[in-house]
Amino acid sequence: MSKISLLGAGTWGSALAILLSGNGHDVTIWTKIEKEARDLAENRSNLRNLPEAVLPETVAITLDMEEACRDRDLIVMAVASPYIRQTAKEASPFMKEGQILVNVSKGIEDRTLYTLSQVIKEEIPQADVAVLSGPSHAEEVSRGVPTTVVVGAETKVTARFVQDIFMNEIFRVYTSPDIIGIELGGSLKNVIALAAGIVDGLGFGDNTKAALMTRGMAEISRLGIKMGGKMETFAGLSGFGDLFVTCTSKHSRNWNAGYLMGQGKTMEEAMKQVNQVVEGVNSARAALALANRHEVEMPIVEQINLLLFEKKSAKDALSDLLMRDRRKEYSTLEWDE
Fold first, then answer.
1. Selected catalytic residue, list 121, 189, 209, 230
2. Which of 129, 135, 144, 238 is most exposed, with the fewest beta carbons within 10 Å of its own?
3. Are residues 174 and 149 in contact, defined by beta-carbon separation less than 8 angstroms?
4. Rounded to two decimals, what is the model's pTM?
């Protein structure tokens, strides 16, 4: 049995607490919001956004960061991406040298264009930071629906340690050394999922969405490889696997927000109705900035930014994508002369 703390009491943090407690570990959830802590403690069988899930009585709830971080075998960072840096800064004084920390949040920091593991490493330099990602809706994980993810770490030893902590008969974990690829796949797919929701909200069909997802993955992998990620990662669980589930599932907050925008809601109205952090909106500007920095063409990301922040209509954005100059599908494929 390992002592594990989850920093973040939201939907994903709660779902993973249920999973890890079921694996026989000593689990604590930290939150800085008193009402959230009280609701979790009092309503363990009525969790917000996790219907049918039950938080075991053995899972402790704390408001004390020091209590959550001291003498832990593993710390799981599960706060939404906008709060990663501040949470890491608050936690750092209480973390030991070599503390294994796995980040399960997805996003890119707006100001620095850092991945979240880079943000954590800057604030907690003594930590051994890993990442966990893949097609894994919290609603399904909390109910024990079979799920498969990948953990990325700097060393094989750390990757296997995290793998053993999380893995059971219905939650399969693979390992990988490609941290940057895993994080970029998990972050950028949220932007494409917004576009997929918009396509559905506009009433278009399977052909349109399949094209969007395929070309969206081409954009993600182009940027990701330029930044040091591996093509195998973008073809894997944290790449196309996560893209597929986020673009097609009713559980996806990014798809839901996009769907509402496709039906005519503003970005602000859609985010208010979804009532959860919509990571794709937070990542869209950062994705475009990274594309410009690395001189990578990302037309879908560009149009999503125009739609979100310049009030461009969804129909005009789609039309501009379809009417771009003709070109080959892959520049690396040539005819024999």
1. 189
2. 144
3. yes
4. 0.93
